[in-house]
Amino acid sequence: MTNNPGGISVGGNVGGDFKNVQGDKNLQGDNNTQIIQGQGAASTEEQLTKEQVIELLAKLDKLVRGAELPEDTKEEATMYLGAAKKATEKEEPKKETALANLESVAETLETASNTLDAGKNIWENAKPIILKVAGWLGAAAGSYLLGL
């Protein structure tokens, strides 16, 4: 037998239909002649549209501009937000560019929240928006944003 953590191992002669519909790395077979391996979506959350993401970025921008933060912190965060929004608005969104800028926004706001009392409030409101947008942009498993 082979190592198959979390799956089903079957030994010997097997005939007929084999179906496993629970968990990741599902196998579907037809009399053992064709096997297709698939992985379902990890989330039941509805996928955002590009327009919704642009609206979320605009909401985040408004939140930053209205926050009680030092002007240089606001300026830095809004600059990165503007670049993320511009990359997202392209006919074919430049998701990697937008994601890199969104990470910079998150780092700026998180740093402000750790050093300024006023920054804590904005971070609590901004973080859920950032995470939603990051999911749409396809944040990779090693991304700074997924560690938030």
Could you give a short description of this structure?
The chain is mainly alpha-helical and 148 residues long.
3D architecture notes:
- With 148 residues, the protein is mainly α.
- The protein has a domain at 50-147.
- It is 52% helix and 5% strand.
- The protein is built from 4 helices and 2 strands, in the order E-E-H-H-H-H.
- A two-stranded antiparallel sheet has the order 1-2.
- The longest helix is centred in the C-terminal third of the chain and has 21 residues, at 95-115.
- It is globular and about 40 Å long.
- It starts with 25 loop residues before the first strand and ends in an 11-residue tail after the last helix.
What's the arrangement of strands in the largest beta sheet? 1-2
Mean pLDDT: 76
Task: Identify low-pLDDT runs.
Answer: 33-44
Gyration radius over CA: 22 Å
What is the number of helical segments per DSSP (H or I, 4+ residues)? Answer: 4
Category by helix and strand content = mainly alpha
Order of helices and strands: EEHHHH
Helical fraction: 40-55%
Shape: globular
**Sheet with the most strands, sense and barrel status:** 2 strands, antiparallel
> How far apart are the first and last residues' alpha carbons, in Å?
40 Å
Strand content: 5-15%
Q: What is the tally of beta strands?
A: 2
Name its key features.
two-stranded antiparallel ribbon; mainly alpha; globular; 148 residues; 2 strands; 5% strand
